[in-house]
Amino acid sequence: MLLVEAESYRAAGKHLLIDSHPVTKEAFGFRVTPFTLKRLLDLKIDHFICLYADPDVLAERIQKDPQGRPLPTKFELSVHVELQACVVSMYSILTGQPCHLVDSGIGAAQLMQRIQRIIGLI
C-alpha cells in the first residue's frame, strides 16, 4: 500500500512525507522495527529527516498530550532519540541518500520552513 501511494505521488509530481517511528518504548526497554533495505530502495526516498528535541521538551509534550503513553525518564527519552537517529542514519548510509537531523524544539511554522528548505521547496 505504501509503495503504491509513494509511486502515485511521485508520478503526480507531489511530495510525500512518511512518518515512521521504528523505535518504540516498551515495558522491557526499546524495540526497533526498521524498514527492510528492499522497502527503502523500492520507496525511492530522496531525503531522510529525523526530528529530535531536548528530553525536557519531549517530557513536556508527553505530559500535555499523553495519548496513553507513560512518561519515560529523561534518560529513556535521550536513548529513544539517539536510537531513532541511529536508525535514520543507517537508512541514509544504506540508500546513499542524505540524512538531516532537525531540532523540533521550536514552533511548528519555523520547523516546517526548515524542512522545506532542506528538501528544496523554498
Spell out the key features of this protein.
122 residues, two-stranded parallel sheet, 5 helices, Rossmann fold, globular, single chain, alpha+beta, 4 strands, two-stranded antiparallel sheet
Helix tally equals 5
Low-confidence stretches: none
Q: Per the principal axes of the C-alpha atoms, what is the gross shape?
A: globular
CATH uppermost class = Alpha Beta
Query: Which structural class do the helices and strands define?
Result: alpha+beta
The CATH topology turns out to be: Rossmann fold
Provide a brief overview of the structure.
This protein has 122 residues and is α+β, with helices and mostly antiparallel strands. 49% of the residues lie in helices and 15% in strands.
Describe this structure in words.
- This protein has 122 residues and is of the alpha+beta class.
- It has one domain (19-118): Rossmann fold (3-Layer(aba) Sandwich).
- The chain is 49% helix and 15% strand.
- It has 5 helices and 4 strands.
- The protein has helices at residues 2-11, 37-43, 55-64, 74-95, 108-118; strands spanning 23-26, 29-32, 48-52, 99-103.
- It has a two-stranded antiparallel ribbon with strand order 1-2. A two-stranded parallel ribbon has the order 3-4.
- A hairpin with a 2-residue loop joins strand 1 (23-26) and strand 2.
- Helix 3 packs across helix 4.
- It is globular and about 45 Å long.
- The model has no long low-confidence stretch (mean pLDDT 93).
